[in-house]
Write a structure and sequence with these properties.
heterodimer, A: alpha+beta, Heat Shock Protein 90, five-stranded antiparallel sheet, 5 strands, 38% helix, globular, B: alpha/beta, Transcription Regulator spoIIAA, five-stranded mixed sheet, 4 helices, HATPase_C_sf (chain A), HATPase_dom (chain A), Anti-sigma regulatory factor (chain A)
């Protein structure tokens, strides 16, 4: 199962986080995990709007090994990219006059977090949460 | 989204709903501050019982509302936060500093009333 939500406006960001919550609920995630996932989508979708203008959020369910299932969210855009990844992951650092909490906060809320970014080409952030919180 | 701002005695009461966009949050902030000025209410109660998440932007706006209301001369109580919202706010690194929080609207309302008479 994969669902793609085009992010063109703030309203789409709300739709994306609602869908993420619904899919997480269907997969059996607790209310706290559903909230972690919805907040993370909210932060990533906001970054798309703020830095790239438009992009997309892809939500996929995952199966690992015998018994673990998870949810993967990819936030992708063709924006300016992140020039300093280390700084972008520091609490309180922001190039948009924000709180600088979106990326480091999302990393804390999720089990897996990775960024693929190329200046001038775009950014692709992948996050995962496992039902049994298995860390790889 | 138009959020009703009720008045009970000297307290303004705002109930935030689910799925507030960033733009709506900014407009709610503005509406609340204007109502504080109009009504000269010294207490502001924001109930978030039905709010299903507070992300970095919403957290920032809540802090701003409380600080701006304080500068104008009004105290803020935030009531009804759910466990999942409290857990994820702390994990995200968000703080509500200088804002009184209470389990229920009733307790928040009592506190605001006492701020006025007991000061």
């Amino acid at each position: 199962m994969q669902e793609t939500i085009q992010i063109l406006s703030e309203a789409d960001a709300i739709v994306a986080r609602q869908r993420g919550r619904e899919i997480a609920r269907t997969l059996g995630f607790s209310i706290v995990d559903q909230t972690r996932i919805a907040i993370s989508i909210s932060e990533l979708a906001r970054n798309i709007i703020l830095y790239a203008g438009t992009g997309e959020v892809l939500i996929t369910d995952l199966v690992a090994g015998y018994d673990d299932i998870g949810i993967e969210v990819i936030a992708a855009d063709n924006g300016p990219g992140i020039s300093d990844l280390n700084l972008a992951l520091v609490d309180g650092y922001s190039t948009s006059n924000g709180l600088g909490m979106g990326l480091p906060g999302t990393k804390r809320l999720m089990d897996e977090f990775s960024i693929d970014t190329t200046p001038g080409v775009g950014t692709r952030i992948t996050i995962r949460k496992w039902l049994h919180s298995r860390h790889f | 989204m138009q959020v009703p701002i009720l008045r009970m005695n000297d307290v303004l009461i705002v109930t935030l709903g689910e799925d507030i966009t960033d733009e709506e949050a900014i407009s709610i902030k503005h509406d609340i501050l204007v109502r504080i000025k109009e009504t000269e209410c010294e207490g502001l109660l924001i109930d978030i019982s039905v709010v299903d998440l507070i992300d970095s932007f919403m957290g920032r706006v809540l802090n701003e509302i409380a600080e701006m209301a304080r500068l104008m001369g009004s105290r803020t109580a935030i009531t009804g936060m759910s466990p999942q919202v409290a857990i994820t706010m702390v994990e995200l690194g968000l703080k509500l500093e200088g804002v009184y929080t209470a389990l229920t609207v009733e307790r928040g309302f009592e506190w605001l009333k006492n701020q006025k008479t007991g000061a």
